[in-house]
Automatic annotation (TrEMBL):
It comes from Halorubrum vacuolatum. Keywords: Transferase. This is Glycosyltransferase involved in cell wall bisynthesis. It comes from the Archaea. The keyword Transferase applies. One of its GO terms (molecular function) is transferase activity. The lineage of its organism: Archaea, Methanobacteriati, Methanobacteriota, Stenosarchaea group, Halobacteria.
């Protein structure tokens, strides 16, 4: 097989947990192939993702994060390295080794907004290298990019030798620009969740959504309206929004004025154990992604009413997957879960079966290896 390098993000958007056995993100695909994994570096040996960290940090603190308009993600070229003089061909592997990307046959790189200009640069300067993009986030994120960043994203999609997606909605967008697109299931690390203690009693607590990054698409308001409907129907539930980082807290602070709603910060330890304390989760984000949160709740035995366009939501919770603003359907499903023990147990059991299936990688590993080989052959 050709030598493969996967360039990922420098920051892992996850927390520590005693019940996690591996990295639950796109790096899992390349663990399957035992490929090298790392992050790109600038000429100053700074990880490319945060080379504009001074501007990024300033943006988190200044009035860019004011209440109106609310923007949590800062999708703008000002926060990306775009000067070709700052790019290098070096990458730092996760084990600390520095490598030259030109020594590989295949480069697979996260198509994150930080990396658009870098990928464009590599396409122009490394024609002998097969370059494949892999989706990060959802296409709804791209619609919020600045115009300049959107056009660069478009050029990258059109120019890469192939593209990997873990969401079928994103796939139809990518196929508009590129003929060599493959959908691969987003898998779960083997043994993940195995040490989570099952919930033994109800705490009358509902998760109203989880976010550590893109609050703009979190749709907490619909979750709060759903909580209102359930309380009006006689369910004595408390709601929590979790995962909100410090620099986003003031964007959700007003929710804390509601009597039965609270926001919880980024959970540093015992994340899965904390998730298992909920009776029910509402994850009606309006961006279509891989849907990792839905799988995490499945792993700890808590049903999720969520966006039907998230791959893992539809895979684990098909009967609970709805349009993100269908509050009538969401209310009906929530009431059924809270009053029908058989429906609750059957939903959880089916979801856990899917988690077990998602911990088997052989078929996906073979598809990925074949895709990389055919892409290299076509590029030769």
């Amino acid at each position: 097989m050709s030598s493969v390098l996967f360039l990922y993000l420098d920051t892992e958007w996850k927390t520590d947990t005693d019940s996690g056995t591996g990295t639950f993100d796109n790096t899992l695909y390349f663990d399957m192939l035992d490929a090298d994994v790392g992050v790109p570096l600038t000429v100053e040996n700074t990880p490319l993702q945060f080379a504009k960290g001074d501007k990024f940090s300033d943006g988190l603190e200044d009035e860019f994060y004011g209440a109106y308009p609310q923007v949590s993600s800062m999708y703008h070229e000002a926060f990306c390295v775009s000067d070709e003089a700052e790019f290098s061909f070096d990458a730092k592997l996760f084990d600390g080794e520095i490598v030259d990307i030109r020594d590989y046959d295949v480069l697979v790189i996260s198509h994150h907004f930080f990396y658009n200009f870098y990928i464009k640069h590599l396409l122009e300067t490394c024609p002998e290298l097969s370059i494949i993009g892999i989706m990060e986030g959802g296409f709804q994120d791209v619609t919020m990019y600045s115009p300049k960043l959107q056009l660069c994203h478009r050029e990258v999609l059109r120019s890469v030798d192939g593209y990997i997606v873990s969401n079928r909605q994103y796939k139809q967008y990518a196929e508009t620009f590129n003929d060599n697109v493959i959908f691969l299931p987003f898998h779960v690390p083997e043994g993940h969740f195995q040490d989570v203690s099952p919930r033994t009693s109800s705490e009358d607590k509902v998760c109203l959504g989880i976010t550590s990054w893109n609050i703009d698409h979190s749709n907490f308001y619909t979750s709060i309206l759903l909580l209102d409907a359930l309380r009006d129907a006689g369910f004595g539930l408390e709601g929590e929004i979790i995962g909100v980082k410090d620099h986003h807290q003031r964007m959700v602070a007003d929710y804390n004025t509601l009597e039965h709603v609270s926001t919880v910060g980024f959970i540093e330890e015992g994340y899965y154990e904390y998730l298992s304390s909920f009776d029910l989760a509402i994850q009606l984000t309006n961006r279509a992604t891989a849907g990792r949160v839905s799988a995490e709740f499945a792993g700890v035995g808590v049903p999720v009413i969520g966006n039907k366009y998230d791959y893992l939501q539809q895979r684990c919770w098909p009967e609970l997957s709805i349009e993100p603003y269908d509050i009538r359907r969401a209310t009906k499903l929530a009431k059924e879960l809270l009053t029908n023990d058989d429906f609750y147990r059957e939903s959880v059991a089916k979801a856990r079966d899917e988690i077990s299936s998602l911990q088997e990688y052989d078929e996906t590993a073979a598809k990925l290896e074949s895709f990389l080989a055919s892409t290299v052959a076509a590029d030769s």
